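User: I'm curious whether this sequence folds into something compact or stays loose and floppy. Could you predict its structure so I can see for myself?
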Amino acid sequence: MEKVVIKSCDSYNACRLEQIIIDAIDELGLTPNGKVFIKPNEVIAHPKYFKNAYTHPAVLEATIRALKNFSVSEINIGGKAGLTIPTRHVFRHAGYSELIKEYNKIADKSEKRPKARAVYFDEEKQVKKLVNGEIHKEVHVPASFLEANFKIYLPKLKANLCSSAIKGGKPSYGITNALKLNLGIIDDKERVRGHNYNLDKKIADLLVIGSPNLIVTDAIIIGSSSSPLTAKPYNLGAIIIGKNAVAVDSVCAYILGYNPEEIGHIRECSNGGFGPSDLNEINIVCDIPLEDLRAKAKDWDSGRFPSELGYKNIRFYTGKMPENKYCFAGCPTAILEAISILEEFSNKSADNFFQDMAIVFGEYENRPNAGKIILAGSCSSIKNCRVDSSKISSDIHKLNGCPVTIPAGINWLWHYAGDGSLRMQNKPRNPYFDTENMMPFIKDFLTSKFKRYKNKLF
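Assistant: Here's the prediction. I'll summarize afterward.
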């Protein structure tokens, strides 16, 4: 029977967290050894924005410190940030780079502590690994990840509009935690493949190579309100630890009010034999009653579907989608994430900078009555309506891709904001034009590209 340990913890105190992790490792009967790979949730970070999108650095610090009691020869800390974002840029903003630097100063003075190394997956030389799954037959990951003797995942518990679920008998967004963390071990091209209505199968495929030995979930402040990038903070006050990703995610799902088996990717992974989703098959050891923790999460918000957002100046139209499935992890997700990022950077509702806009997903029957129409995704269309995507000023524009990427969504929505021209009046702040962060971003972007090509050659 799989075991999951839950400890109450109301603050990001690294000393307290270190002891929790040491005790949990003992409770789970684990012995970290040899080459250890630690993967936090590093999808995105920023000094002002996305504060609840990534694993808190105190959790990473505590995990590294807890390894001092074991025969560890190497510590690698890494992953892959979101599309177009250099992972080194995210590590710096998340505080990981400074943390690793300070830890290595201590390691230099001790013969027993190995130094830690940041591994940016978008820069490392990739090794082909067979998966033979439904979506992926093979993937490419760095050798340091594959060669690790012991893998530790540090997910951030959040709502996620990529996750399909049933909650209270109704369709709902689900969660992101340990299972979905594997999207951060593959490169951009492989990350996009199947990131649509096939996401549940994709996540199960990746468990073949991305099966952690230890999961330490940052559930002290969790992400609420659907978007995993611009998540709102919700105080749950817990650390959730286990050695099976399906079991840990199932316990997390239950705490947040779900039947774990009604979250698509958890069900897919459980049915694939990767672990139990039935809580009767999981030994839960906790210092706070599970039902009390569930009651504490009763006001947590999983988010709303496009039609429920209540915008006055944006209307969403959903037509027939491939296989007649709502594409949770595809274009609706990318567009909603893009809108939420523009709102986050501008600190305003999208109604303030969009005028009479319609966004269409899938094959729609009739042309919406709107000043601007965006067809989101390669499968999107309007019956008997010709679209000229070559004209940037056209009242109908199609964003191709399966799915459309979030960066494409941000930049096209930014273009059509205001009066639809390049004039800045009534436009939202675009993160790609953020003057405070532009030069550091460009520097990290160029450094990342140089390192990537260098490592390919040698």
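Summary: The chain has two domains: 2-296, 306-427. The radius of gyration is 22 Å.
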